[in-house]
Amino acid sequence: MAMRFDGQVAIVTGAGGGLGREHALALAARGAKVVINDLGGARDGSGGSASAAEAVVAEIEAAGGEAITNAASVTDYAAVQAMVDQAMAKWGRVDILVNNAGVLRDKTFAKMEIEDFRFVVDVHLMGAVNCTKAVWEIMRGQNYGRIVMTTSSSGLYGNFGQSNYGAAKMALVGLMQTLSIEGAKNDIRVNCLAPTAHTRMTEDLGAALPLEALSPALVTPGLLYLVSVDAPSRAILAAGAGGFERAYVTLTQGVFITGEDAPEQVAARFDAISDRTGEIVPEMGAAQGMIELTKAQKAHS
Ligand code: NAD
Question: What is the pLDDT of residue 207?
Answer without folding.
Answer: 61
